[in-house]
Amino acid sequence: KAEIDVLVKEIEEYTIIQSIPGIGKKIAATIISEIGEIDRFDNPKKLVAFTGVDPSVFESGKFTASRNRITKRGSSRLRHALFMAVRCAIRDNRKSKTTDEIIPRNKRMRQFYDKKREEGKPFRVTVIACVNKLLHWIYALLKSK
Question: What is d(CA 78, CA 80) in angstroms, rounded to the nearest whole number?
Fold first, then answer.
């Protein structure tokens, strides 16, 4: 762990990714190590496909499946790190509740999460949609430095 901390502090992308609320030291290091160079991807959809959180498509003739799962093509470590980053981002920021007001760590992510839940999406489907959005943010931040 100490060796990872020393190596990752030399990388510029580490501080850029850590600037997103909900992403800590270990998650940022995992994301950087699993993605590698961001220049390998032409657009954010390729990064999403590399991660394996893009929906699979089942079609044959006139049949179109209504339940499409994620492809899981990429690294399971990266998917797990992004899943945990989203869980941390949408979580309540306070340790003890004094009011009913929700103060999330990442307000934009929580608004997106709440919108999807109001649409009737299940929890895991909503979190994977948030992971997809987080990957788009990471791609934009790393490309523009």
Answer: 5
Domain ranges of the chain: 2-92+103-144
Q: What is the pTM of this model?
A: 0.86
Angle of CA points 36, 38, 42, to nearest 5°: 135
The C-alpha atoms of residue 98 and residue 136 are separated, in whole angstroms, by 35
Cross-strand bridge partners of residue 64: 59
Distance CA 125, CA 83 (A): 11
- As a dihedral over the C-alpha atoms of residue 113, residue 117, residue 131, residue 99, rounded to 10 degrees, the angle is 40
Q: Which residue's structure tokens are 């788009």?
A: 136
pLDDT in tens, the chain (145 residues): 788 878 888 888 899 999 999 898 899 999 999 999 999 999 999 999 999 998 888 888 888 888 788 889 888 999 999 999 999 998 877 666 677 776 778 889 999 999 999 999 999 999 999 999 999 999 999 999 8
Are the CB atoms for 53 and 79 separated by under 8 Å? yes
